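Methods — Computational structure assignment.
A single polypeptide chain was analysed. Its primary sequence is given first, followed by the predicted tertiary structure written as structure tokens.
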Amino acid sequence: MLDFYTWHMQGDGRATLLPLSDASPCAGPIWVHLNYTNPDAREWILNQADLDPTVQETLLAEATRPRALVLEQGLLLTLRGINHNPGQEPDDMIGIRLWVTPRLIITTQLRALRAVKVLQRDMEINNAPKDSGQFVARLIELLNDHMLDTIDEVDELTDNFEKTMLQSRSVEPIPDRELADLRSTILTLRRYLGPQRDALLSVISSRLSWLRKPAQQRLREAENRLTRYLEVLDASRDQLRIIQEQLQTRSNNELNKQLTFLTALSAIFLPLTFITGLFGVNLDGIPGNQNHPFAFWIFSGGLFALGIGLIYLFRRARLF
């Protein structure tokens, strides 16, 4: 469970760690970071009389989707970041909720998020954001930075699958499970990153007075970067669809070849079976057997010649 902490950003890069009881607006924004499942943190949020009920509910919500909501007092923002915790899947994205005003920033989460750890380290080394706008821009940039490896891995895996399919002659060169897992990862990332880009666009167009031009420019660049991530995911999704279609086509062609071969084989033996069955109904045996002792061999030779002739015709017709 994450500890909660409070930082006072003094506007010049320096930051001071404060107890939660001293988290009151002052010169320079206060950053309060909380684990929303901690009883003390929940009580502190619910006791903030100046917080809108919508803000309180969102900060304490268990499940959130990326969105941005501009209220009269400030900005309510929910975002998602890649899960880098040991033993966890990257696409099991971690949610972080923000309430941002010129003097107070409240963030809540449950699981550890690398971007928050980097921000905390910035506070410790006196490299803190100077205002609330820079804080939001810095957090979003860090979230994007830590997505890069996962996006590159998805792109590389997709390219490797395509090369494997093109170079292999087997019907199923790629296990279906691996394709399904990669498609699931892409769809999960796409489901969160699409709304996250929309949320960034809402923040950029919000015209908040404390969101100054340098911070807006950084947010535009972050939005452009997120758009590129989405384009990579869309391209990978389309590549996987083509790969699956080609594998399905290859499998169908192989099945058709096998069915054609079995059909041709049946067509060869069908007349032979018919003739042997027809001659076999005679009670006296094969006609001519009494007068011609070689009738059996002549009959067998005729069947063999007929079989060879049928095989020749089917080969000419390229049926097998």
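Note: The longest strand covers residues 75-81.
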